[in-house]
UniProtKB/TrEMBL annotation:
It comes from Mycetocola zhujimingii. Pathway: Carbohydrate metabolism; galactose metabolism. Keywords: Carbohydrate metabolism, Isomerase, NAD. The keyword Glycoprotein does not apply. Belongs to the NAD(P)-dependent epimerase/dehydratase family. Residues 3-249 form the NAD-dependent epimerase/dehydratase domain. GO terms for molecular function: UDP-glucose 4-epimerase activity. It is an enzyme of class 5 (isomerase). PANTHER family: UDP-ARABINOSE 4-EPIMERASE 1 (PTHR43725:SF53), UDP-GLUCOSE 4-EPIMERASE (PTHR43725). The keyword Isomerase applies. The gene is galE. This is UDP-glucose 4-epimerase. Pfam families: Epimerase. One of its GO terms (biological process) is galactose catabolic process via UDP-galactose, Leloir pathway.
Length: 319
């Protein structure tokens, strides 16, 4: 079997690709390199440069490489920026997914694992988020991911598409010394860039209704996340039962303030963070149960917070 990974040159996608190949599953990458990096692509993995919005290119790729299924990671992933750029967000995440699903239908590819997000929940009114928690996205990004889930469901009803959506929480760490998070908006790379430049890292908001006033999130290691994509693909290939959505969450929250403490301990650099205003669209707390994913998708938190910070710092420091 051969799986296409859209966005496979990005931070998460590159880890997914390597997890597939290490488990003996052939992978092909489709990426427009708008935020991905060609240096993240293994030399022995076929790479097609282009956009999921190019339906003809996607169709040609699916047919040329005899694709079995798709892991759809490509998209515009910045919740805060999506508030200022809603049309761009919908074009990339909704129109792009429509084009991908249309090409899959034309090529007869009937399996997909979708990169969804905790952003579909907005600010949940519960201590622990489950897959049944009401969805109330508070940014165009979150809305676009929820629409993506709806599209998969409807295509499943209409065309027999088999699918699952994996709702990501805060993905951090590194599984390889040459792959790291380069997002200009994510906490870990922002902190590392500041420390390397001799600046004070910035915390966006210390007035949230949380114990230390900073946002509380699930932080999960990217290598753990990647392995669950492999498990999902195997279940789909085997025709085994699978839930339509899974939370890849830890069940434990970590605050941004606690992250800063871990950063100081791992890097050995003493600093006091600069406090900035909240970012639009950022909820105060999202912590989720990963019980369903643990049951079906080999979801295990194999890394501590210190592991997450140290692996990410080690990869970033080699640049």
């Amino acid at each position: 079997m051969t799986w296409l990974v859209t966005g496979g040159a990005g931070y998460i996608g590159a880890h997914v690709v390597r997890a597939f190949t290490e488990q003996g599953i052939n992978a092909v990458i489709l990426d427009d390199l708008s935020s991905g990096h060609e240096s993240f692509i293994p030399r022995d993995v076929p790479f097609v440069q282009g956009s999921i919005l190019d339906r003809d290119l996607v169709l040609d790729t699916l047919r040329r490489f005899d694709i079995t299924g798709v892991v759809h990671v490509a998209g515009f992933k910045y919740a805060g920026v999506s508030v200022q750029r809603p049309l761009h967000t919908y074009a990339q995440n909704v129109t792009g997914t429509l084009a991908l699903l249309g090409a899959m239908e034309d090529a007869g590819v009937t399996r997909i694992v979708f990169s969804s997000s905790a952003a579909v929940y907005g600010t949940p009114d519960t201590d622990i988020v489950t897959e049944e928690t009401p969805k109330n996205p508070q940014s165009p990004y979150g809305e676009s991911k929820l629409i993506g889930e709806w599209l998969l469901h409807d295509q499943g009803v209409a065309q027999g598409l088999t699918h699952t959506s994996l709702r990501y929480f805060n993905v951090v760490g590194s599984g390889y010394p040459d792959v790291y998070d380069t997002s200009p908006h994510n906490l870990f790379p922002l902190v590392f860039d500041a420390l390397i430049d001799g600046r004070s890292p910035r915390i966006n908001g210390t007035d949230y209704p949380t114990p230390d006033g900073t946002c509380v999130r699930d932080y999960v290691h990217v290598a753990d996340l990647a392995l669950s994509h492999v498990a999902a693909a195997r279940r789909l290939d085997a025709g085994e039962s699978i839930e339509p959505v899974y939370n890849l969450g830890s069940g434990d929250g970590v605050s941004v303030g606690e992250i800063m403490t871990a950063m100081r301990e791992v890097t050995g650099i003493e600093f006091e963070p600069e406090v900035a205003p909240r970012r639009p669209g950022d909820p105060a707390r999202i912590v989720a149960s990963g019980e369903l994913a643990a049951r079906d998708l080999n979801w295990v938190m194999r890394h501590t917070l210190s592991d997450m910070v140290s692996s990410a710092w080690s990869a970033r420091s080699t640049v």
